[in-house]
């Protein structure tokens, strides 16, 4: 029933093709769907720094308006509340012709968060991406999809190159996100292949930094919040699984480079930091920062939790001359300091 409803809504809200050209008085705009989220808010800020006019569209499902505090009074910034699963807001459709670029970062991205309403997660990726692609097509705008390392699933190939097709379960609890992102990629490539839209696809690996939500449930935010509030650090499984963590400013620089590059739309690009560590080692770093002995509480490993993950970034190096610059020790310290300064108060992190 939800899908029928979504299809009906889509038929009614398809933007007109051949939208009028931007007039001289109207500056062109960049749309950032998911712009109030952790990565989205940093992207909006970086685009404003480049002198762009930014419209941030966000449902605030897993994001936070406080991420936009530093942006709301900046010239050229506008926030519009809306869920891309529903019809796009009129204030966006009316100005379709003014958008020159559309970034799609709209989706809950933390496993516990995207599993709260799996159907909505899938629809965000499929119906939501379709709406934004249609908008891009009508506007003649370039579209960038933020896909994910989760398209590789629990990978047999290591490190993961873009050619690797993945080891993904469509029956497991992560499917709403990883299969949803795979479908969003397929849709995006079809818009490209049929010449309807110019597209770029970034596959984002684990990213961390200020603006992560305190209750986000991801490992970096969980462990920092626990360390700051003197509670044991939760390790799922034995902590020997690996991840490779990229600081958010590096990632955002990569997204902007990719959007403005000549990389063809059918070539997804991994963006992540190839420095791989175990989750147990990450806990050691964070405990050392807090100056507390490392007290650990072991919990069961979630279903389908990937054992190893590390991006091969040869393609990003070659095509974008991009690579991460911020080492883990520096990025973690900045993130730790941000959590320490910003998110204190009664009940701080009490749910973790
Ligand atoms: N993890 C953990 N403790 C936590 C949260 C996560 O040990 O409090 C583990 C999780 O099982 C996974 C890794 O840390 O192996 C990264 O999890 P996260 O949710 O940050 O992102 P994922 O890479 O799984 O999408």
TrEMBL record:
Biased composition range(s): Basic and acidic residues: 1-17
Annotated stretches, region: Disordered: 1-23
Molecular function in Gene Ontology: NAD+ binding; UDP-glucuronate decarboxylase activity
Compartments, record wording: Golgi apparatus membrane; Golgi apparatus, Golgi stack membrane
Keyword Transmembrane helix attached: yes
Gene Ontology biological process terms in this record: D-xylose metabolic process; UDP-D-xylose biosynthetic process
Keywords of the record: Decarboxylase, Glycoprotein, Golgi apparatus, Lyase, Membrane, NAD, Signal-anchor, Transmembrane, Transmembrane helix
NAD-dependent epimerase/dehydratase domain mapped to chain residues: 30-272
Cofactor(s) annotated in UniProt: NAD(+)
Record-given protein name: Uncharacterized protein
Lineage: Bacteria, Pseudomonadati, Pseudomonadota, Alphaproteobacteria, Sphingomonadales
